[in-house]
Amino acid sequence: MSKKTNSKGLSRRRFLTLMAGGPAAFFIVPRHVLGGAGFIAPSEKLNVAVIGTGMQGIRDIKNLLGYKDIQVSAICDVSQISHYTGPYEGRKAGRGPAINAMQEYYAQYRKDEELKTPAEFADFREMFKQKNLFDAVLVATCDHIHATASMWAIKNNKHVYCEKPLTHSVWEARKLAEAAKQSRVATQMGIQGHSGEGIRLIVEWIRDGAIGQVREVHAWTDAGGTWSDFTDRPKETLSIPDGLDWDLWLGPAVRRPYHSAYHPYSWKAWWDFGTGAVGDRGCHHLDPAFWALNLGHPTTVEGCSSIINNQTTPKACIIYYDFPARGDLSPVKVVWYDGGLHPARPEELEPERNMGKDGLLFIGDKGKILCGGWGESPRIIPDAKMKDYLRPTRSLSRVGDHFRNWIDTCKNGGSCGADFAYSALLTEVMLLGLVAVRRQKKLQWDPVAMKAINDPEAEAYLHPEYENGWTL
What we know:
alpha/beta, 9-stranded mixed β-sheet
């Protein structure tokens, strides 16, 4: 052995010293060896900071804690505790309930471990000053904070998982994609169906020519119509709840007095904070079409809706996208419906079957594929045709677990299935549809210039200005 100690081995003197130390010397064996099967040494754990501990954030924390190699080391939320009303009457969220949820999880499912209480922050910008606390970040805030929080993670070389939609505006999506491309961090958007079996079957069948060239895609959700009855900002001013930093919650949005119409539940219905049903479900349901058909950028986008105003998203809308030919793939028309609107029922669908509250329909030259939301349970219709179809050999790798895909990529390198290169474009196209809804006209889209070439006034919606000194 060399006398020089290096990363590949011990020096001869050090080796002899350890041997001379007798049995006690062997306590230098790594803890994961001594710990036995299933033991994960602290050095092998991925420390995650969670930004946004509302109801979705707490659900994500519980999911993360299901992985023995994950430790939630920091949490950040503008609220210490939030009390929900409406459909979630009695539910609580915020930093306090998040820690309580962690304590309960450890007591029930990780009894062999002691919970290290995570560091708490109200402002994620302050959290990043202690970036040695964590390796990765999960963003589960309101939509209008997604881009800034994710960009802070990328600029601080932290892996980042962001809930959908990735951003609140088209411009933000483009900028995040550019930043992620220049970084070496693992990125993933929270479209869990992208790691599922259903979407892989759809991609394989369409590539196999199961229904021929796809000319139309229709996707829908019943969500969105009941989130808010407001058409203008509330006139009354309510007291800010204890433990809530209202200015931080507003972030880059236009200032206004606190009201429970915005926080903690109904923010999705407000243009300044949410993205309506398109942002809530569009990235999920149209994901299979983007992957299977390699859609890219549309040439035109047109939106129509129920009564629209400048404050809240419409209760229902339809968005029409035209995508050009892509290599050997034909041009395709994609239509989005929400608020309970659906496409016409396909004549091939058996009378006893319904289309569902969430779904996706592919129409090809030789047939149709119908699936549930998130790409679940795809079937060629009618069922007799499905039974006759000789399925192709699997050509796509199976992932099965969206979080696991991200965790493994954080540790081992590579790219996630729904990384920001992919999901930023998907988000951009979804949000472009909302711009068309707000403008109530067909937009001619120039993706290179990122402009609606026939409507300069659309710029205000493509790239809204940040307020109060916030930047991306």
